[in-house]
Amino acid sequence: MPGPGDVLELIRDRGPLTRGDVLDMTGLSRMTVSTRIDALLDAGLIVEKGIERVTGGRPSKRLEFNTSHAAVVAASVDTTHTTVALTDLAGRVLAEERVDVAVADGPDHTLNALAERAKALLTSTPGVERVAAIGISVPGPVDPDTGRPSQPPIMPGWDAYPIAEHLGDALGVPVLVANDADAAALGEQRVAHPGSRSLCFIKVSSGIGTGIVIGGQVYRGTDGGAGDIGHVKIAGYDDLVCQCGAHGCLAAVASGRAVATALTALGKPAASGTDVGAYLAAGDTDAARLTQEAGRVIGEVVATMVSLLNPAEVVLGGRMASAPLLTGVRETLYPRSLPRATRHLTVSLSTLGAQAATVGLAALVVDREYSAAAVDAVLSR
Ligand SMILES: [Zn+2]
Fold first, then answer.
1. How far is Cα 46 from Cα 272, in angstroms, rounded to an integer?
2. Is 185-356 in the same CATH topology as 4-66?
3. Domain ranges of the chain
4. Among 3.40.50.261, 3.40.50.300, 3.30.710.10, 3.30.420.40, what is the CATH number of 185-356?
């Protein structure tokens, strides 16, 4: 029989709902629905809002997930810096700070710095009484079983590092570890494209990564490597060495770092995707041309993804997300895919930008900490 946790999940997914809606959707008795809802109200997990007056009927209150029940600490570790944010349970950012630690600084230094900043944010942000968990995203694959980085190509010292234990000790709350593109994909799907259940998020910054959402949930793959397209080998580029040590990887050909190298050769110094992004924002024509060319190569690989998964959305994000990148991807993606696979496909630029991972981390935390099983366990104590 559905417990209070199941009723909460229903309200989270489909709410706001009236008591009558819950009755109809669960098939539970009126008495049981009443008990379940009272338990959720008492625990502060849901709130009653607004009164909807139906002509001739009696007024009915609507039940909503209490997105202020607790806060989430969302930390996005990027190649050049880390963002620490405090959000509510809907992923709305309450406070946010950038910490100048890079992933190459190693796990100890990076995690200590972000734990300090998280503590400072929690103290300085009014109205935060409880923390549901800390969600942290990293720019590399995460093993779904252990929650530890799994042979990340661009994260020296992080392989199998116990991130959750380290942060859990420092902050005293549960920790969730995710791949950055996975988190961003979920953020885009839940907030920017809630009507689409399947989405591929292509992050093009200094490296290239992909997050895949299928049926509203992140698909990680057996070893957390699903969507790691940056190291797919591209024919004809054997002379280019990738950061991972192999030759001819997509990232060696078309990432922000690759475009930065090409720009530098033209006398326009650049070292990272962030640098290229700055040239693009300034309207530099060489940066635009090289980014569009990179987009064409990326589009070839994305065409395979689209044929395989038939998603509703392909969203381009990261520092290189720009009109030239979008044009380049479309130029090769459509001709190389069957019309059936692209008939309902939308290819667009990220609307959440740098906040996509933050919003996605909040969603991942809520999905885990407020799952039916987790809620039932807490309420039965
Ligand atoms: Zn590689």
1. 45
2. no
3. 4-66, 71-180+358-372, 185-356
4. 3.30.420.40
Q: What is the pLDDT along the chain (381 residues), one digit of tens a residue?
A: 889 999 999 999 888 999 999 999 999 999 999 999 999 999 999 999 876 565 666 667 899 999 999 999 999 998 888 999 999 999 999 999 999 998 888 999 999 999 999 999 999 998 888 999 999 999 888 998 999 998 887 788 999 999 999 999 999 999 999 999 999 999 999 999 999 999 999 999 988 999 999 999 999 998 888 998 999 999 999 999 998 899 999 999 999 999 999 999 999 999 999 999 999 999 999 999 999 999 999 999 999 999 999 999 999 999 999 999 999 999 999 999 988 889 999 999 999 998 999 999 999 999 999 999 999 999 987
CA pair distance 122, 128, nearest whole angstrom = 7
Rounded Cα distance between 64 and 325, Å, is 40
Q: Report yes or no on whether pTM surpasses 0.90.
A: yes
Q: Residue 201 Cα, ligand 1 centroid: separation in angstroms?
A: 19
Distance from the CA of 359 to the center of ligand 1, in angstroms? 28
CA 339 to chain centroid: 29
> What is the CATH code for 71-180+358-372?
3.30.420.40
- The 3-state DSSP class for residue 2 equals coil
Quote the ligand 1 centre to 229 CA distance (angstroms): 9
CA of 312 to the centre of ligand 1 (A): 28
The residues, ordered by sequence, that sit 6+ positions from 352 with a Cβ below 8 Å of its Cβ are 184, 187, 188, 191, 192, 317, 359
Interval between CA 188 and ligand 1 midpoint (Å): 26
Cα 205 to ligand 1 centroid, rounded to whole Å: 14
